[in-house]
Amino acid sequence: MSDEWFYGKKSRSTTSDNRLWAVIIIFMIINVGVLSYVTYYGGDGANSDIDTLNTELDSLRFRLNSAQQEIDNLKEQVKIAEVGNASDNLILTQLYNSTKQSVVLISVRTAEGGGTGSGFIYDSEGRIITNNHVVGDAERIDVTFLDGTELKATLVGTDPYSDMAVIQVDAPDWLLHPIALGNSGDLLVGESVVAIGNPFGLANTMTLGIVSAVGRTMTAPSNYVIVDVIQTDAAINPGNSGGPLLNLRGEVVGMNTAILSSTNDFSGVGFAIPSDTMKKEVTSLIEDGEYLHPWIGIQAREMNQEIAEEMGLDENTRGTLVVAVSEGGPAEEAGIQGGTDQVSFDGLTLTLGGDVIIGVDGISMNTFYDLIFYVSRSKTPGEVVTMTLIRDGELMDIELTLGVRPPP
After folding, report:
1. Catalytic pick from 107, 118, 162, 241?
2. What are phi and psi for residue 361, nearest 5 degrees?
3. CATH of 294-404, one of 2.30.42.10, 3.40.50.740, 2.60.120.1440, 3.40.50.300
4. Is 87 part of the annotated catalytic residue set?
């Protein structure tokens, strides 16, 4: 079986060229027809027919642009087929060419100046997913596509707590190439991923790396955290923010968001918001302009051996120590208690004596991360959860109705 048969190189290229020439010829015939009609008949009586022909011309222009893009894509496939024997693995080249038209450059103007970032096309309605920190404070947002088309965008919805935003452009169908959201929960450490974006304004740059870790946390406003963050060593730099992190199937598994660096340049540690978070929030951002996070209303820290011993508990006790409860919050209304005793550990003052949450809805919560991940990913405001906790050495269950996290 030849490569030529598999890729359909000759027949597909010829068909697309014929299609393009057919559209061009039709376009020219209609132009000549319009000119002849106006010249022969003239006057206002021809206006309605001219409007109809102009509409058809606009439609043909869109079809012509779409055909040209298809031909360009086929040329890339032909090039890949022709050099296939020179490379053992062109999967990354194929991946890039199948997704590059889905990634856009975002330029913003703010009261303090301006900047650039990245985004990717979510659906055929022209909605684009990006970071909140890219567009959240923008007075004007412009989106540039791969072919150079620049369109003004409107802000649809934002969520500062997950650093996620949705913007929208009014674009013709041929310009929109949505890209699918994958399952970030299926990612494995060591799995290959690629980042596509516009670092330092360098459009459509692709970098390769691996998943360095999963289940990281990032700081969100008001000392909350973003859960389940993906760590990668694929190079991410300023301007990559909002661009997709892709698996080798070409699915978005994350949104490139931040780096850990002392120089503000990439140093091997980048972070991406997981696609599972995007899938959970995107509908609310589109329909309501915001996403309402569930809220317990506690200040807490993770248990450890020293704290357990100081509180007279078994040294192996694991869970979340409630340091304080928010006034009027869900935890206070449910009767959960914060700490009362000030104790010093290695020069640090800790507040002990509060409830220790060890489970929710019958599921063990060994760490503070377990607790916030479960509530953030599985619950919504208004739902009732059963907290299993230790108070004064006794085990008890308390029902708590989740609230809405206050604005930052």
Report:
1. 241
2. 55, 35
3. 2.30.42.10
4. no
